[in-house]
Amino acid sequence: MPVAQRPGRVLAIVSIAVFMASLDLFIVNIAMPELARDFPGSGLNSLSWILNAYAIVFAALLVPAGRIADRIGRRRAFVGGLALFTLASALCGIAPSVELLVAARVVQAVGAAFLMPTSLALLLPAFAPEKRPVAIGVWAAVGGVAAAAGPPLGGLLVEIDWRLVFLVNVPVGIAAVVLAARNLQEARDPEARHPDLLGTVLLIAGIGLLSLGLVQAPEWGWGDPRTLAVLAAAVVGIVSFVVHCAVGAAPVVELSMIRVRSYALANLAILLFMTAFAATLLANVLFLTEVWQWSVLRAGVALTPGPIFAALFAVPGGRLAVRYGQRNVAAIGALLFAASAASTALRMQAEPVYASVLLPAWCIGGIGVGLTLSTLSSAAASSLPPARFATGSAVFTMSRQVGAVLGVAILVALLGNDSRTASAAAALHTFREGWWFIAAVAALASVAAHSIGRITLPKPVAAAVPTPESRASAAVV
């Protein structure tokens, strides 16, 4: 039988789980060069699915997983998701092929999708209202710590064996499952709506096919019937998803939320920004290891300052947003990130110029990330009434992950599979195209963020069913 909840213990348990799920978004990038060496028959287009399969499934399942958790019990969903994530991590660590590794990553994403929405729902009731801002601050900071720890920790583990990137989750996950089962109290919402399974399938199909078409186009050819067929099917899938959301009873994305201008633009801005951010993470890892021929460990350490600056500027970014407006701070942050990518494209050399070129650009980009992510999250949350906060946050996170999928897919299309075998000069030219693409998309994100305008809370939707968690979360924003 679970004992009475202790707030500090609840915070520690959910933070461990969120750290694991967040770390896997960053740590796998650093393992890509070693994965390419261990699976020599696989090109970058195949390996990219190790990143994108996780992001696609995670994005599509966030809202349905939250609704399932409300119905079956949030503790049950949290513990089950944590156990599934841990099991899938073990399967990733022993996968003998890229195909099985991608399959295990899909299972891992399912577990992560149940972890994220339930973690905050379990955390808030454990704290008195006046202490919830601090608890949420710690919960949110875990993502920044995971981002900062990803490159050096990933580099250290990969130097030993890339499989440890996944296997390290197993003992931590087992301990967290035991602690969660013993210390968390059950909570459910009997009036929660059924999850939208058809919408989820359409979203996975649409984004997955779009990613497949972009990734395979350089190999198949942009005019090849296979490329055209896949991209056409992606358009059909995405349009079908939008139509379903317009007519469905309880869709993944409620279009009434998208009609709120500030919320829609915050989602567009985060999708564009994450496209640039995900492409940058992968591009810099590949450039350092393939063009400069640095070890994975050295590359991981070299990339650490960026996430550290992002974490350091996240809290000041929130304070600046209160004073100067969310749209202004987010727009400046995205513009800094664009300037970072443009500077890298202009000044990068085939020989190592880390201290004079990459380090300052990477730090400026990290500042941009810290200013942008925190303020866009706040803008999205502030745009919705309390009854829509939980679903709105899940949709916003979904937009982040879809952006990450597009960023990886488009970068892979730009680089192609020949970047590893090309001369240093030829590879530099190809990577410059990638950095210019990143700069352009980040600049578009800045425009979208600045267009958010002054945020005014809309009237609550009558069909909404407020929950204690949604009221508490909205009160903190």
Observed structural traits:
Growth Hormone, Chain: A; 18 helices; 0% strand; disordered C terminus
Describe what you observe in this structure.
With 477 residues, the protein is mainly α. The protein has 18 helices and no strands. The chain has three domains: 185 residues, Growth Hormone, Chain: A (Up-down Bundle); 53 residues; 220 residues, MFS general substrate transporter like domains (Growth Hormone, Chain: A, Up-down Bundle). Helix 2 packs antiparallel against helix 16. The C terminus is likely disordered.
Reconstruct the topology from this structure.
Layout: H1 7-38, H2 44-72, H3 74-94, H4 98-123, H5 132-160, H6 164-167, H7 169-183, H8 197-220, H9 225-247, H10 255-258, H11 261-291, H12 296-302, H13 305-324, H14 326-347, H15 354-382, H16 389-415, H17 424-450, H18 468-476
Helix pairs in contact: 1-2, 1-4, 1-5, 1-7, 1-11, 2-3, 2-4, 2-8, 2-16, 3-4, 3-7, 5-12, 5-13, 8-9, 8-16, 11-14, 11-15, 11-16, 11-17, 13-14, 13-15, 14-15, 14-17, 16-17
